[in-house]
Amino acid sequence: MVWRRTSLLVLALAAGGLQAQNAGTASGVDQLIQQALERNREILAAQQRIAEARGLMRQAGVRPAPTIEVNAASGRPLRTQGEEEYTAGYFHPVETGGKRSKRVRVAELGLALAEDELAERTRQLAYEIKTRYIDAAANQQKLDAIGGILKINRDSYRLVDARVQRDDAAPLERQLLLVEVNRTESQQAVANGQVQSARLELRRVVGVTSEGEFDGVPRISVAPAPSGSMADLRKRALESRPDLHAARTLASLSAAELALAEAQGSPDLTLSARYARRYAQFEDPIRTTTSGSPLLLKDRDNILTLGISIPLQGRKRNAGNIEAAAARQNAAKLKVEQLEIAVPLEVETALARYQAARNAVAILKRGVLGESEKNLLVIRQAYNLGQLRLLDVLTEQRRLLETELNFIDAEAELARSRAELERAVGGELR
Predict the structure, then answer these.
(1) Is the pTM of this model over 0.85?
(2) What angle do CA 412, 415, 416 make, to 5 degrees?
């Protein structure tokens, strides 16, 4: 009766792994990703980078400020009486070569690049959360499976121990069951450590600091196969991958920086207007006053001066910046070309991995797990008839548990490969 219960439990555990495909794993992962986007410091830092880029874009549109100058001159401190001059000037800088519009263009592309980098970091974080989530779920399922077998082994041991004490069973059977219980407890201890480690890793990625904030992990859920051909997936990846978007934006930014560097080689102009009022006093060399002293003459002049200032600089003064900008542009173009080659190959690799994992799950589900369950029932019946030993039953039970653990690993690999395929494509697959 005890071994019949063992077989039924193993069957239930295997069936539970299949029925778990309808669990709400996707919604659980989505909630964790949302939590991470709100708490992860790298994501928050990338959002601040966007705010910084917006500020730089606003500053890039600011025109150079004009200058007002006021001067006063007097000869009195130097004992020169009657010499005074007051001037007021206005200087208006004029940018040439379209520097302002090109500077604004550079800032706009800098903002777009910051947004692309945030999208890329979000993509990588979502993939990391999914894989950590799958690890935690798989380890929990293994722990549950081992715990169920351990409970049955303990019940069997207590029953056989009672039979041995009544001389209804051989002491060897009790010893074999004791060894099996201890071995399963060892497996449980290892599995429990793996569960705790996986949960801690998941909490670290999400940014959950306390266990109370963590709701736990349901079982693995394998989504249906994605629709679309290889060509469709490649096309989607080339259109939607954030890292490729970022590389293309960086190439455009480098081209805009090169245009700005070339424009900065042209000198800016400064238009000026200056008004001066001068007072002068001097002695008339001919005429004198009635007392015989020299006649003092006074002069007052109003002068308006208009001018233009042009720096004496050539384009060679900015040749180094132009050369550096050209090198950055070439490097950005090469990175785009490399990604355009690598992205389709990544999609193809991820799809091949997903298809192999799906085939492995189908084989285990169809021709291995069910057959192992039937084998255990047959061996148990033979044991009850006295045709096999207890050791044969324990060996087959171990084999069935190993098969179930392999099936959990296969389901986890299928879920990981789908997450990798979504990462390679650059978005969720339906």
Answers:
(1) no
(2) 85
